[in-house]
Design a protein that fits this description.
single chain; about 800 residues; Rossmann fold; 4-stranded mixed sheet; about 65% helix; globular
């Protein structure tokens, strides 16, 4: 409770200190940036702290953190002196916007407290990616400077996007919060920042809407739909779980709805007919709706996560940490679309109608997103560049120069973003291995609607209300259809060229599919795409409708020219809808090659951001549709998806005692050993090595001290191979199991080991020969089943 209050007060103070700065930078927004002042302040503060520490100007300590905060406060005070003549004018703004402020503050506190309470009921950093995330937080807390040390590969820095963990560690160090507690508080904080960020976007959009702008009270209430759709609304899988659990539409040993739907576990006979699923982690299935099979019938896992699932799961992974800052990027795009930061910037011979300040703000945000979750920079850059181009279209009409605006603006801000965060890229490596064509796995329409139906329904119904007047829909749909054909053709062209360039690889691929020739692959793959045409048709309708309404709808003659050019909420929402559909279209034809060699991760990352964009569009659409009875009925149908977070929370939160300490589950002896190491002099530790998603690397994870090797599979993913790991796994086994002290001593010296840990996990993993260690090393800790020796 104490830590929660300290974090709440710290973030509230940060928001107030940052507000004069964002107020001065976002004059076109109705809320002047109040709803995202915390997130913006966090981004700027963290950037200053990280950059100064990376350059060696400051250190990773309280002094460095306070120096970064002092610079942020200085910038804010300078901004305040320019925009407010005295304290009275500041108070006047707060008084005038008191309802907005009360709503934002109430939403932030309730969201933060609710998620913190949920995390306190299931706090353990166990399973899935949690140990990795906690390891990063503790390693950053323990690293004297940046880049922070890799906790699972001694002698190396972290080679993964880790800005969110720097933010977490920064708050933990400032508030004297243990890393194990900061883990859960940061999860709750991200939820709360996302809630008020989404709220602010919809609020600022609705102010533009001539139909409802006459009532700010209505806007302040209806803007709550944005966090509802983004964070709580789920896909339709949970509703299907309930129907399946009751045996509805099920007939044993005969084809039925569930076998046609063919979602794993839902296509099996329900074990028991009860109202609520009893299967362990039944809520997990909602993140695995899309089902991929190769042509030989082998299942290929696909991840289609969404925010409600993320917060029930509780992983503090980069795609979750970046949520408030993607929303910040959406807000920046909106501000540019509304005419913010007008000016002129010239790069070589090309002129931009955006001031250097605006370009810097965009680049700082894009660079931060790449450091938070590298996938996001392309998505956010495309959104902001599209908003810039759309503004140019609304002012000057469409020419091919608008397409150049999009490309050059995106390239410029992307390059500046990389330069602003250059220290990160200098030490970053990746498993990415290029772009591959997706030839055999189109997404079924049924699966797409189960995944996105709660968002697509309000979007479709809302777009239908705009479908009047003169619309050149043939051109709009024709462009999207041409894009789909071009992507299909390009994917097969690349595959055909690759089959000649590497015939051995091509033959291996075809044999794995049970095929003999490339022509067989072409025929069967496209037959499947034709069978599962529903997904493509759905995406054609979404994208084609958005393009038609956004670019090819003729305004009535009675509308003045100035009003035609004025920014509208409708156009911006259509832009979000279009970009969301392009994110879902992309993995239908291409995916990023990684160690999994499937489109699993590409769908995961793209669908997650599509959910964010479409949730904002759906929330706006529902706010319009609720004026009619049909809209109320539609909203009621969508609200049935709330059974997912309700029953998911009930299933997950079953702790007898409440605590925010993610390490509270540790066995008493190991907890004592970890506490001893936290207070011991710095040094590399040696512990047992094992597979990912296990209890291995538990000492490094909970102390922040680097171990010789943690989870080999994860290190391979982060670094794109095994080169850095070398023979470490075998060497560790040799140290523990060899009876020869000289061999063990040489390896301990090679890896500069200071502490050797022996516990139950080491005893069960290796044929332990502890006598040599006990004879030659100093025993510095012993309790129950755990001993720690110091070397040399």
């Amino acid at each position: 409770m104490t830590h929660f209050l300290i974090w709440y007060l710290t973030l509230t103070l940060l928001g107030l200190l940052s507000f004069p700065l964002v107020y001065s930078l976002f004059p076109k927004l109705a809320d002047r940036g109040y709803s995202f002042s915390r997130a913006a302040g966090m981004l700027v503060w963290s950037y200053i702290f990280w950059m100064l520490t990376s350059l060696g100007i400051s250190e990773n300590n309280i002094g460095g953190i306070l120096l970064g905060l002092a610079i942020l406060v200085g910038l804010s005070l300078w901004a305040a002196s320019r925009i407010f003549s005295d304290l009275r004018s500041i108070l006047e703004w707060f008084k005038k916007n008191s309802r907005l402020i009360i709503t934002v503050e109430s939403l932030f506190f309730l969201s933060f407290a609710t998620l913190a309470l949920f995390r306190a009921a299931n706090p353990e950093a166990l399973g899935t990616e949690k140990p990795m995330e906690l390891a990063f937080i503790n390693a950053i807390l323990r690293s004297p400077t940046f880049p922070p040390r890799d906790p699972w590969l001694s002698g190396y820095a972290i080679s993964y996007y880790h800005f969110g963990y720097i933010m977490t560690a920064m708050l933990a160090k400032l508030t004297t919060t243990a890393g194990s507690i900061a883990f859960n508080l940061m999860t709750a904080l991200i939820f709360a920042l996302s809630a008020i960020g989404a709220y602010g976007i919809l609020y600022n959009l609705q102010i533009l809407d001539s139909e409802i702008q006459n009532s700010k009270f209505k806007i302040q209430n209806s803007a709550l739909l944005a966090p509802l759709f983004l964070l709580l609304i789920s896909n339709f899988e949970a509703l299907l779980e309930m129907l399946h659990q009751k045996g509805i539409f099920w007939k044993t040993n005969t084809p039925n709805f569930w076998t046609w739907l063919n979602i794993k576990t839902l296509n099996e006979d329900p074990a028991t007919l009860v109202p609520i699923p009893e299967r362990f982690w039944w809520w997990w299935r909602a993140s695995r709706v899309v089902q991929d099979f190769d042509l030989a019938g082998n299942f290929r896992e696909v991840i289609d996560e969404f925010p409600a699932f993320s917060f029930i799961l509780g992983d503090l992974h980069p795609h979750v940490l970046s949520l408030p800052f993607i929303l910040l990027a959406v807000t920046i795009a909106l501000h540019i679309y509304l005419g913010g930061w007008r000016g002129e910037s010239k790069i070589f011979t090309y002129r931009f109608t955006l001031s250097p300040l605006g370009i810097f703000i965009v680049a700082l945000t894009l660079g931060g997103l790449a450091f938070l979750n590298t996938w996001d920079i392309l998505i956010a850059a495309a959104l902001i560049a599209s908003a810039y181009a759309l503004k140019r279209v609304s002012e000057n009409g469409w020419t091919w120069q608008r397409f150049e605006d999009f490309l050059y603006f995106g390239m410029l801000t992307g390059i500046v973003a990389i330069l602003l965060y250059l220290p990160f890229y200098l030490g970053f490596s990746s498993q990415a291995g290029g772009i591959l064509p997706n030839l055999i796995n189109p997404t079924r329409g049924a699966h797409l609607w189960v995944m996105f139906g709660t968002l697509l329904l309000p979007i479709f119904f809302w777009m239908s209300t705009l479908w009047h007047g003169e619309i050149n829909w043939k051109l709009g749909f024709g462009l999207v259809l041409s894009l789909l054909f071009a992507l299909w053709f390009l994917s097969w062209l690349i595959a055909w060229v690759a089959s000649f360039a590497n015939s051995t690889l091509a033959m291996t691929l075809m044999q794995s599919q049970g095929l003999a020739t490339f022509s067989e692959l072409f025929a069967q793959a496209n037959a499947r795409r034709g069978t599962y045409i529903g997904g493509t048709l759905t995406l054609l309708l979404v994208a084609g409708g958005a393009v038609s309404l956004l670019f090819f709808r003729k305004m009535p003659n009675n509308i003045e020219q100035a009003e035609r050019r004025a920014p509208s909420a409708t156009s911006f929402i259509l832009l979000l809808t279009l970009l969301g559909s392009l994110l879902v279209i992309a993995p239908e034809f291409f995916y990023l090659r990684d160690q999994f060699s499937t489109r699993m991760n590409t769908i995961f990352k793209f669908y997650y951001q599509a959910w964010l964009l479409w949730s904002l569009a759906a929330a706006y659409g529902i706010s319009i549709l609720l004026k009619k009875k049909s809209g109320i009925v539609l909203f009621a149908l969508i609200l049935t998806s709330l059974i997912y977070p309700v029953y998911g929370v009930m299933s997950k939160a079953r702790a007898n005692t409440l605590t925010l300490d993610s390490a509270a589950y540790l066995q008493e002896d190991e907890a004592a050993a970890i506490e001893w190491l936290k207070n011991a002099p710095d040094g590399i530790i040696l512990e047992s090595v094992g597979g990912s998603y296990t209890g291995y690397a538990r000492i490094a994870t909970n102390t922040g001290l680097p171990t010789v090797l943690g989870w080999p599979g994860h290190e391979s993913q982060w670094r794109g191979g095994h080169e850095e790991m070398g023979s470490r796994q075998g060497d560790i086994e040799m140290i523990y199991s060899t009876p020869d002290w000289e061999t063990a001593e040489a390896l301990l010296a090679q890896y500069d080991v200071r502490y050797v840990v022996i516990g139950l996990l080491e005893e069960s993993t290796y044929l332990l020969k502890e006598e040599k260690i006990d004879r030659h090393l100093e025993l510095v800790f012993s309790q129950g089943s755990v001993r720690i020796y110091r070397f040399p």
